[in-house]
Design a protein that fits this description.
Layout (H helix, E strand, L loop, with lengths): L18 H48 L7 H46 E2 L2 E2 H10 L3 H40 L8 H14 L6 E2 L3 E2 L2 H23 L1
Antiparallel strand pairs: 1-2, 3-4
Helix pairs in contact: 1-2, 1-4, 2-4, 2-5, 3-4, 3-6, 4-5, 4-6
């Protein structure tokens, strides 16, 4: 009996089929891989684009706060300059909450899958498999494993970069307000700015299932833990 090799690990289920059925299954699995890859990239791209759009809007809001100047009529100046900025900031906060509520469970599942897939593949660990295949000179399988590791690492970077950028952009508005000529404004406007700064002390953040926030340190922690585990496996195999 010929042991067919499939793009997806289904040899144990579809190993005894004829050559014609094998070719049909290859085509079906290739279509499945393309559809799943497009769905994966589309979902990640949508999250990244909408989050970076929010970051861009926060940067524009920060620039508008930096342009606050003293007006001839403090009451009119307060209504004409601060009210639109406050309303705009409230809308951006609502958008950030909607993104958080829509994606936090999905991001948590992605991070769990990233950690598991990097560490495990079927019955063998990826680190152990890469080392074993490299020793057996199975370079095609090694490249496949490294491709998956690189893909999930890039996916992890997109999530953490978007979350970290959102946090830094929302926190930078406080500095922008403080750097204005607030000492030349009326006490009423200064009090309003103080209330705005108090609200901005709670920066906008994205989390993974409400368990931890998305920052670049999250990505580095995952990579350090993974590399440490792979190094441990390599030392264990050498012994």
């Amino acid at each position: 009996m010929i042991a067919w090799r499939y793009p997806l690990p289904t040899t144990c289920l579809l190993g005894g089929v004829s050559y014609r059925i094998y070719n049909a299954l290859i085509v079906i699995q290739m279509m499945q891989i393309i559809v799943l890859s497009l769905a994966e990239c589309t979902s990640d791209g949508f999250f990244f684009c909408i989050t970076m759009h929010l970051c861009g809007q926060l940067e524009l809001l920060r620039n508008r706060f930096a342009e606050i100047r003293r007006g001839t009529d403090d009451k009119v100046h307060n209504d004409n300059s601060l009210r639109p900025l406050i309303i705009r900031h409230q809308k951006l906060i609502t958008l950030a909450r909607n993104i958080e509520d829509s994606f936090n469970i999905n991001i948590l599942i992605r991070f769990i899958l990233i950690s598991v897939v990097i560490a495990m593949s079927g019955k063998l660990f990826i680190g152990l498999r890469v080392i074993t295949l490299f020793r057996q000179r199975e370079y095609n399988e090694v490249m496949k494993m490294l491709f998956f590791i690189q893909f999930y690492t890039l996916q992890c970077f997109l999530f953490t970069h978007a979350g970290d950028t959102l946090h830094s952009q929302s926190a930078s508005i406080i500095t922008s307000i403080y750097n204005t000529t607030w000492y030349e404004l009326s006490p009423t406007i200064v009090k309003d700015l103080m209330l705005i700064m108090i609200r901005l002390k709670i920066p906008l953040r994205l989390s993974a299932g409400k368990f931890f926030f998305l920052t670049r340190s999250t990505m580095t922690d995952i990579l350090k833990s993974t590399m440490t585990y792979i190094s441990f496996l390599q030392v264990t195999m050498e012994d």
